[in-house]
Amino acid sequence: MAESAAAAGQSSSVRKSGVPVFVMMPLDTVKTCCGSGLNHRRTMARDLAALKSSGVEGVMVDVWWGVVEGEESGLYNFEGYMKLVEMARDAKLKVQAVMSFHQCGGNVGDTVNIPLPRWVVEEMDKDQDLAYTDQCGRRSYEYVSLGCDDVPVLDGRTPIRCYTDFMRAFRDHLAGFLGDTIVEVQVGMGPAGELRYPSYPESEGTWKFPGIGAFQCYDKYLLNSLRMAAVAAGNPDWGLGGPTDAGGYNSRPDDTDFFRQDGGGWDSEYGQFFMSWYSRMLIEHGDRVLSGAASVFGHEPGVRLSVKVAGIHWHHGTESHAPELTAGYYNTRRRDGYLPIASMLGRHGAVLNFTCVEMRDEEQPRDARCMPEGLVRRVAAAARGAGVGLAGENALPRYDDAAYDQVLVTAREERMVAFTYLRMGSDLFQPDNWRRFAAFVTRMSEAG
Question: Beta 139-144 vs 131-133: how paired, if at all?
Fold first, then answer.
């Protein structure tokens, strides 16, 4: 509770001086081959200085598990990140460091490929049930399945232990920057760094917008948990697997018996049991990872924790909210699935970072039943209800005034504690784009 109060106090002080804007660095800022150097170093100092001159508060950078601990378990190389943080400090910029325990590649905006650490992939090759699995047996190597969180399957360590050890090593190597330059640690918890299941993978054309995605609960570890939950509920048959009538990755809700509006299985006794278990497993995973993060950073003054929640806005205008359900968010027209997530974050004093705050309903295709504005309001209400700060990101690269206006309105109405812009690159520094962006940063500094 003390941490939550401190976070609330920090949020309040931020609002008085406007909403600080951070900018995401390129995904391959640190050289992926060795982790010791920086790409585009010659232009980086110039670009950081330009960001500072525009009033930007700081930058966000992915600290890739596959780069830092890529070759050998327990052997860390933060040299490249040390150089970057030094450059940010010299430019008088703050840093949001993302503990990226996922694979880069296969999601929206992934322009490079950074796999999980080699030794982790080798373990997953030996035991493919360490990977999230769908009902057709497709394995995902984006992130280690949460079903084995507490099983010593990674070179004798549990995944939770690996994540905590990594964060502790980060803290120890960059201790001199914590609180002054590094002001936030965003804790990755799934694909794209988001707290969710890999239900809508773009790799190899598996999923395309606006498909509903697919449940990811068919590895042996999650199936064992489901069986035990079904037995405890007095219905062992419910533990044989996920719904068999939920369609495929690119189905629409009304194409399926499970997600259809009238009498769909999602609203049956079995559907409520399954979705409660599926979402509970995700929230408990977040709780375990955040507990590790809090044990490492909880006593570091000036450093706050945050967690990213995905902005799954398509089919949000339907009864079932199918894409949210397959991702692990038990959120329907009649049930709030975000308050339990926000409450879990609140227990650790963490900020809820939400995407798609730049989107407007009217911009979306009608057949996809998108409601990004309503979704943002719902998540913001959950954050308020749990007493946690709300931060935002744009889901897609945008350089137009309409997107900036939407972010500004949301920042004011929902009292956001920070906004992180996606992403720094050559397009951002094009004269017209840069002019609009700099004006946006100024307007955000006056919001609150």
Answer: antiparallel
**Cα–Cα–Cα angle for 360, 266, 365, rounded to 5 degrees:** 25
DSSP secondary structure letters along 244-300: SSS--TT--GGGSTTT-TTT-GGGSHHHHHHHHHHHHHHHHHHHHHHHHHHHHHTT-
- 67 close to 96: Cβ distance less than 8 angstroms: no
Q: Which residue has the tokens 């200085």?
A: 49
Whole-number Å distance between alpha carbons of 238 and 242:
8
CB 358 within 8 A of CB 396: yes
For residue 54, pLDDT beyond 50: yes
What confidence tens digit (pLDDT) does each residue in 292-320 have?
999 999 999 999 999 999 999 999 999 99
Q: Which of 152, 171, 170, 169 is nearest to 161 (CA)?
A: 152
pLDDT digits (tens, 9 = 90+) for 266-296: 999 999 999 999 999 999 999 999 999 999 9
72 catalytic residue (yes or no) = no
Burial (0-12, 13-18, 19+ Cβ within 10 Å), 250: middle
Q: Which listed residue (142, 373, 393, 414) is catalytic? A: 393
Q: Which residues pair with 30 in a beta bridge?
A: 38
Residues 6 or more apart in contact with residue 268 via CB below 8 angstroms: none
Binding-site residues for substrate sit at 62, 102, 110, 308, 313, 355, 394-395, 423
Give per-residue pLDDT as tens, 10-28: 443 334 569 999 999 999 9
Helix/strand/coil for 76: coil
User: Of all helices (H) and strands (E), which one includes residue 8?
Assistant: helix 2-16
Tokens of 239: 């533990």
Amino acid at 73: S
Annotated active-site residue 414? The verdict is no
Q: How far apart are CA 122 and CA 85, in angstroms?
A: 31
Rounded distance between C-alpha atoms, residue 408 and residue 357, angstroms: 9
Query: Annotated catalytic residue: which of 194, 358, 373, 414?
Result: 194
Q: CA–CA separation, 175 vs 172, rounded Å?
A: 5
- Return binding residues: 62, 102, 110, 308, 313, 355, 394-395, 423
Calculate ∠ Cα 97-165-156, nearest 5°: 140
How is residue 115 annotated by DSSP?
Answer: P
d(CA 281, CA 292): 17
pLDDT for 13 equals 38
pLDDT at 110: 63
The whole-number pLDDT of residue 400 equals: 97
Secondary structure (3-state) at 186 = strand
Place of tokens 């690996």: 162
